[in-house]
Amino acid sequence: MHHYDIAAKVLIDTCRDQILRELLHLDVDESTLIEGLPQETVSVKRSDFPMLVTDSKGRQSIVILEIQTQWNPHVPLHLLDYRIRHILSKNLPAISAIVLLKADARAIDHYEDSEVRFQYQLIRLSEMDAKEAIEQWPFGLLPFIPLLKHGPELTPRVEQMIYDEPISSLIKADMLTSMTILTGLVSDILPQDILSRRRDIMIESAAYDIIKQDGLQQGIQQGIQQGLQEGKLFASKEALFDVLMERFDRIPSSIIQAIDRIDNAFLLKTLLRIALKAPSIEAFHKEFDRLVG
Questions:
Q1: Domains along the chain?
Q2: Which one of 57, 218, 227, 239 is least enclosed by Cβ atoms within 10 Å?
Q3: What is the pLDDT of residues 66-101, one digit of tens each?
């Protein structure tokens, strides 16, 4: 699954009802993701998200949602294949839709050949107005706003709105991390800016590993050009963060910010050894202050 599909999956897990109501304009009382597919083949992409949806009158239907970063002419056929399999499995009516994360003039809302015409909803996020969405959309959809028209310029405001919202730290981490990943579709600079400000929160999200891997690859490339130093520093910092999160669950933001400022590979290696042995985050913090000051 592509990085952007994973970010979308995180959001679907947390706010799929809002996505169905706002983007597909459906009457939704509750929804659940459908896991697995009868006789699944390699033609079925993991960026498909099938859902069992119950409306306010108790009627059930299947919604098959496909997330695409760029258009592929085979997507409608994959979607049709998925639709037929689920209809045969559940014996329920189905609604098919594609959410296109990035503008692509090739995208169409139907498939047609000499025997078949298949119509589905095509949601082009790039054609929606971020200025309206930021005022009207439910909170759970805010991470998609950078992808909308005028979205990049409103991204710092959206970031602050998510940061200020009184929700659990894990949901906040997932939303900020997903938004950071999706923002990479429209900007090279904005994701780095968000990460520099919110890493202490985002590190709690499972999706943060995507950013870490991307950053590691970028660091390696920088390292090739700069004597491998940048790549080594990035890898050392992430190894230290991993150990601290694994052992103590949460890292104070002051420690994360201080580690980010370190440019000495030997010091990072020393801190890693301390992190492996420290009985508590407080003990690590004490040793950290002694070494770093």
A1: 3-127 (3.40.1350), 136-206 (no CATH), 213-293 (no CATH)
A2: 57
A3: 999 889 899 999 999 999 999 999 999 999 999 999
